[in-house]
């Protein structure tokens, strides 16, 4: 693939390919001298951790370069191995140096592959005992030295190949100390068993050791039966519920799989039925561990191969020439002549033998493995199907193929389709899928190439399509061209479609590679070389390039044109990914010149029903496709003569009105922004005589229970042409456009669109003071319009997305500006002063709030109305004062809190704007955004410092403050930020002038309002309230006593965190205002507040609280009594009041305990 691309002449693609070839393709092992130096330095560096790590990392970098071309290391493996083993064998080498040497050895082994590398390890008789001794000294659970154990186990595996009985190595079994020495065979078996039960890579090496050791003739006679019994016992007695058991099962299964892979059939056949029965009882396919399921499949296929005699199926399909060069050089006739394709195999040619019953179980388990949820299990099962089928008679093999084809049912999952593709590829590659079966197989593979199942918000099937490409690749190598010739059109078109239009880049590249293989091996694909040049491995990597450029080039070949268009229509314009839908419609636009008649007469009629269907994605893609195709037909008509243009126009004219209806209908559900701009023009063209029906449809849509229907209806009413609204204003219902949808807080988007539509409708009718309310904006209905818009200015709906009501407020501000300027220019006399005043106040409030975007929008609208001269907006309150604050030359960045708030706080000095401005500032000063809080509070306190010594100005400000507090007691959006703002004001002594008078009315009213929050359950609200109480302590008189009483009651609050917070705040309060209590008890009070454990239970903290009451001269809070009435009929108690002290004096006397009452509970 890389070399082929470098020879193309595809502009920049060839240059890119050349650079990739130069970068990736290595010529030889160029770092041999540096590697030799690194290996020689092991003696010097092993003692220093830093140098060891540096040397190891450098060696890793060198070796990893050859991961893709490990064969380049082969000429150098021997000297590298000898240098490392010299260190290992040296008696003077310390353990740290030995471990480092084995780590370097493992790195080489990992890159080259253990199967090749282990053959180079020395395996003479003299090596057995040293390796055994060294391995016996290792700690099996030391995670730092696992490479040493891994390589020693591989080395021991190679030493097991010595052609002498192991008992000859034992000599005298008595050691020098006189104790009996364990035989070598038993030592190796013990080591193998022990390492099969550990975690990590040494377990894999132990399974290799088992395969080499247990297949020795002397070991088979003495140990094979016992080892198999141990393995079966381990498997049957171990579950997969813990990591330890999973490792044990893994080791046992892996050892059996490798043993049956390398062992002789005659030695292992007698044990196979017992092992198969054990696996059936274990139910490994039901395990949650993918690796155990894979090993189970691997072992079962090896058992199946053991049951069947080793044979090469004589009925298999054999291709005459597998050389690509020979295939290209031979003519078609020669290729056919040299092909050996047995069509009929006589029964006499097959060897007669019985198929064991266990084989049926094996095949059943392998077919089940094809449907596993993990790829590694399915791939192992597919290979097992291929191996076992190759040893079956023709009839049984055909039954297996039929079972594999059952995986391609639409009732099966994507896992079954993927496993089926892998199995077919294996069968085809091995010649076990006879040409007679291709008529059944090819249609399934074509379906697999476009398999895409929607799951939730995405889809699955990319692995199926990738595997289908692998099937096509394997078929190209397996069959003669004449066998695949009937299916060339299907396979070629499907591969091209996948290579160009698949969403997954791996699938596109896999299809490109499969197409290239078919072009080279078969030579029958239409325009194969030309297509390969344009759609090579690298070109299909860019999705936009595939859809917009490559597809156009390939569609220029008539064999592929309609297939590509049909695929886009049926599979891609309704794709779940919006990017794919949009690219598909653009591709259809580009493909239209290739088949204009087909697009106009066939494709467009197919798209129209989809445009009004129920599938959202299908509607979106169909509408865009109609637009793109129609546009392309129009451009094509302009480029040709009038007759051609007329033909195309007439071909499309029949559908235009249907398109108009479709777009109007779809507008009710989705794509409002895209479609609304076209609706007005379409209505002017086609709806001259159907006004009532369409308007009624949209008015009814305003009452729908679906949010998108409401949005579409509102936008549609707003964009209708003026002649459709004339004399229908009452029918349209201006206030209904907002009020209908405002009843449901969840339909925020529909309220936003309705507010926008109000201004649009107003802009399309006459503005006249004495006009008819059914056809003009006049004095009779202007108040309704403003009432709806001003009401929307107070939309503070919130959901999981945040302050979504801001969308409505933003739209309301824009609509207010547009309607006001419209009325002011045409009939300013119909604007009531109260409405203008309310509008300017609401804009001032929004300009003081915390969200930068909406604050900026409100500020810009405010200044636009204030500075407007043509037309001039009448009745703006205190307009001269506003112009002094905001001159016409003002250049203000409302998005920047540092600029905006220093202007907006000046509105606090204007009585008409003070309330609303302060209300907006409340959520900014008490917010959580640091920059907003900083600059808004700084500007507010700058204003307050200017009036804090002037009682005449501060008293109205305090009254406004109390009014805001009173109006929003139950509104957490305002009340919590208000308490935070109030705490800052008290902390900055903004009301110091009120402290000169005992029991000032402002303080009393403020305390009464704050007391309402003492019963709240919101922690943040209670904490803010505590801070305000502590700030109110600065005011003298009875206020101070009442504040202390409230704080002391909070010391016994139900929530421990509130008790702790109250104690902490009181401690800080007494540090700040040390003159509020008697100095003689000050130290005792502060000590008790700081030392007591206020998180303890109420029974513990109440006496301490009462002690504080005595010291501070505050009456102890009285126990609260709950009153319940006893119902003698039902024998139950009914709660009359949750709190005795909450009863008013009149009802308190009448609720005295008496007959039918019971006193319960005693708590604060």
Which stretches of 5+ consecutive residues score pLDDT under 50? 1-23, 331-351, 642-658, 660-670, 1126-1164
Chain oligomer state: single chain
How many strands in all? Answer: 7
Report the major sheet.
Answer: 3 strands, antiparallel
> What does the radius of gyration come to?
43 Å
Q: Tell me the overall shape.
A: flat
The assigned structural class equals mainly alpha
Strand order of the largest sheet: 6-5-7
Mean pLDDT: 83
Helix content: 55-70%
Count of discrete alpha- or pi-helical segments spanning 4 or more residues: 59
Content of β-strand = under 5%
Alpha carbon gap, first and last residue: 83 Å
Domain Tubulin-folding cofactor D C-terminal: 838-1021
Organism: Cyclopterus lumpus
Family: Belongs to the TBCD family.
Subcellular location: Cell junction, Adherens junction; Cell junction, Tight junction; Cytoplasm, Cytoskeleton, Microtubule organizing center, Centrosome; Lateral cell membrane
